[in-house]
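We both want to read discrete structure tokens more fluently, so let's practise on a single case. Would you write everything just below, so we can both look at the same thing?
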Amino acid sequence: MKRICLALLLSGLLVVTPVLCGCGGQGAADSGQAAQTEEEPQPPVLDGLWGQRDREYGDEGMRGAIDGDTICLWFHTEEMDAIYWVGSFEAPVSEDDYTWTSTANREMMTSAFSSQEDTKDFEYKDGQIGFDVTLQGDTTHVVLKQHSEETGVLEDGMPPKGE
């Protein structure tokens, strides 16, 4: 009888021991895997179409597009689109708030509404791009929100038709 009890006890230990070891090993693997699957913070993707929202003028206002290393801003009304700014753009390298100075592409800025500045400062914060617009001596701070992350939206540095 003692032999049977001892045999049952030993066989029970042989069954339980791998299960217990397997649980501990699996948990350690899960925690290591969870650490590996956590993504590093990524810089925001600013390529795409941008625009003012919640304006009392409805669909009219400032529009923008970032495509690769170019930023283009234009005034949009039902009757026209007029280029305000075409210049350089450098994408952010971290998820932090971001500022950059854009250099004007004078060849593209031929509209009567185009900025007369050679450089323009921009800021990206809380998912929005902000910058100052000066027209006829009056300066206003404009904030644009991203409408899409499309790439290839500019044709030869100019805004897409109908945007």
Remarks:
- The chain has two domains: 1-38, 48-146.
- Strands lie at 48-51, 61-67, 70-76, 81-88, 98-103, 119-125, 128-135, 138-146.
- The CA atoms of residues 32 and 51 lie 43 Å apart.
- The chain has one helix and eight strands.
